[in-house]
Amino acid sequence: MPTTPMPTTLTHTPPPAAPSGFPDGPDALEALLATPSPGLVADLADLDGDLVILGAGGKMGPSLARLARRALDAAGRSDLTVHAVSRWTDRAAADRLAADGVAPVPFDLLDGDPATLPDAGNVVFMVGAKFGSAGNPTHAWAVNSALPDRVARRYRTARISAFSTGNVYPLVSTASAGSTEEDAVAPVGEYAMSCLGRERVFGYHAVEHGLRLAVIRLNYAVDLRYGVLADIATAVHAGTPVDLTTGHLNAVWQGYANEVALRALAHASGGERPFTLNLSGPETASVRRLAQLFAAEFDRPALFAGEESGTALLSDSSLCHALFGYPALSLRTLVSWQAEWIRRGHPLSGKPTKFQVRDGRF
Questions:
Q1: Does 290 fall in a domain?
Q2: Distance between CA atoms of 307 and 6, rounded to whole angstroms?
Q3: Sorting pLDDT into bands at 50, 70 and 90, what band is 260?
Q4: Does the chain have fewer CB atoms within 10 Å around its N or its C terminus?
Q5: How far apart are CA 278 and CA 299, in angstroms?
Q6: How many domains in the chain?
Q7: What pTM does this model have?
Q8: Which CATH number does the domain housing residue 35 bear?
Q9: Cα(166)–Cα(117) distance, rounded to whole angstroms?
Q10: Is residue 14 part of a domain?
């Protein structure tokens, strides 16, 4: 008697569970970035006047504005306004900030009259021109070096926390701990030189007019939609070789970077040595090792091009960590989250960091 075949049972292997605390999508990511630490809440409780964020429409600006609003509210300072200044060509982004209690201010910082900007006792300066600067250096110098003079004159009596970049330092040995705030600057390329120009112009006002200034030399912030981890993870996931020429880097969670920029307002100082701070993670991370970690996450090989150089753009941020503590999210956690973000098909900015560039031409 013939045997009746049994129906085939298809088994489905579920995807791995999301890492603990993983922000599952842009809304969850924005909510996490807008969650202040107790230290930030305590510092902003003493803020002396409203806060203006210049360049608030960039990659970090909206999350920093939301973070500041949440921290002020938690500190009982709902009397203070957070003004988010940008051209706001994306009206939807401005409307979302307004819904979160931030005041968007449409304004062209290069061509508008600074006198019409809101009064404030505190300013976070986030304006910068990097990508395309090699092909349009005059624009980079206008934004990075000339604009700070207009801002410093408008907000001469305010505290200013100004984002700069670790690119003002030279490439250093990967065997070192990185450049410190006391080391000599030696920018490579016009972008880095124009950023040093930003520091020098703000510094002029600190010397001549007593401007209270905090200079924040950042490299590199990551927030899952962009950053060096997204660059490396995307390459591994797509089977594209990872360039090893710049074989080591620093990376730090954007939420921590935003907090430090705000908390640095309390340390702003005038004179010949304004408060200057390196802002990065505590590790010197190997690009090869990061690619291998992503290869394990995606269960596929990592491909490489080139060989590691003995130098890289590295910063020693131990002063930052001593003042504000270590980032709450470790690099290994960020690697797991970045892989999960890509596995789930969440959006990426499509704007690579170009961390591999060694000649300063962006």
A1: yes
A2: 56
A3: very high
A4: N
A5: 36
A6: 1
A7: 0.93
A8: 3.40.50.720
A9: 29
A10: no
Whether 214 is covered by a domain: the verdict is: yes
Tell me the pLDDT tens digit for each residue of 92-136.
Answer: 999 999 999 999 999 999 999 999 999 999 999 999 988 766 788
Q: Choose among 341, 347, 253, 350: nearest CA to 298.
A: 341
Scanning 210-350, the segments in alpha helix (DSSP H) are 228-238, 254-263, 287-298, 318-324, 331-343
Q: Residue 7 domain-assigned?
A: no
Please choose, from the candidates 36, 279, 325, the residue with its C-alpha nearest in 3D space to the C-alpha of residue 161: 279
CA pair distance 254, 60, nearest whole angstrom? 7
List, for residues 337-348, the tens digit of each pLDDT value. 999 999 999 999
Segments in the chain forming alpha helices (H) = 26-33, 38-44, 61-74, 91-99, 137-141, 147-154, 189-209, 228-238, 254-263, 287-298, 318-324, 331-343
Answer whether 287's CB lies under 8 Å from 248's CB. yes
Q: Which residues contact 81 (CB under 8 A, 6 or more apart)?
A: 50, 51, 103, 118
Using an 8 Å Cβ cutoff, are 351 and 179 in contact? Answer: no
Among 231, 276, 279, 285, smallest CA distance to 254 is for: 279
Of the CA atoms within 13 Å of residue 29, those in its CB half-sphere come to 21
Domain coverage including residue 262: 26-343
Average pLDDT of 300-329?
Answer: 97
pLDDT digits (tens, 9 = 90+) for 50-69: 999 999 999 999 999 999 99
Inter-axis angle of helices 61-74 and 26-33, nearest 10: 50
Whether the link from the prior residue into 191 is cis, omega within 30° of 0, is no
